[in-house]
Amino acid sequence: MNAKDVINHTFGHSDRVLKYYINDLEDAELQLVPLDGMNCIAWQLGHLISSERGMVEGIKPGSCPPLPAGFDENHGKNKGQTDNSANYLSKNEYIALIDAQREATKAVLESLSESDLDAPAPERMQRLCPTVGSVMLLVGNHALMHVGQFVAVRRKLNKPVVI
């Protein structure tokens, strides 16, 4: 197994876990804020999509599908606790965007050589990820940083344990 294999496995694991947690949620449930100061799942899904797109575009500009108008703004900082449901999409729309972005991300990863993965990351990302490979690994792990918050929503809604 090489670095690209590990990163691809991370993508798959992360995607499965995220989808397990949202599979049985309704659109309105994605907008529930379980505790003051937490962001709703809809915002977090948008943040994950927008962040992944930004990281991958930093590595290979022009490689990612466009996002709907206003998407980045509606999923930017300080927007996650809004009561304005017009800022959010349906679960199926988020899943379609997640899947389209992930396919673009996988295509970029496939296009990189092992030595490309060792190259310095784009400057704006180097504080967290010094190399292109570490950026791609963060892309794969990012959802796992958020799904713990999804559990709070699931508990509040008395949904079953999925993992």
Name the features.
58% helix; Four Helix Bundle (Hemerythrin (Met), subunit A); globular; single chain; DinB-like domain-containing protein; 6 helices; 163 residues; mainly alpha
Describe this structure as you would to a colleague.
- It is a single chain.
- The chain is an all-alpha fold and 163 residues long.
- It has one domain: dinb family like domain (Four Helix Bundle (Hemerythrin (Met), subunit A)).
- Helix content is 58%, strand content 0%.
- The chain is built from six helices and no strands.
- α2 runs parallel beside α4.
- This is DinB-like domain-containing protein.
- It comes from Singulisphaera acidiphila (strain ATCC BAA-1392 / DSM 18658 / VKM B-2454 / MOB10).
- InterPro entries: DinB-like (IPR024775), DinB/YfiT-like (IPR034660).
What's the helix and strand layout?
Blueprint: H1 3-22, H2 41-59, H3 71-74, H4 91-111, H5 114-118, H6 132-156
Protein name: DinB-like domain-containing protein
Domain DinB-like: 17-149
Pfam families: DinB_2 (PF12867)
Number of strands: 0
Could you name the CATH homologous superfamily?
dinb family like domain
The figure for the number of domains is 1
* Number of separate helices: 6
**SSE arrangement, N to C:** HHHHHH
The CATH class: Mainly Alpha
| Whole-number mean pLDDT | 95
Structural class by SSE content: mainly alpha
Protein name: DinB-like domain-containing protein
InterPro entries: DinB-like (IPR024775), DinB/YfiT-like (IPR034660)
Domain DinB-like: 17-149
Pfam family, one: DinB_2
Concise account of the structure shown:
The protein has 163 residues and is mostly helical. It has helices at residues 3-22, 41-59, 71-74, 91-111, 114-118, 132-156.
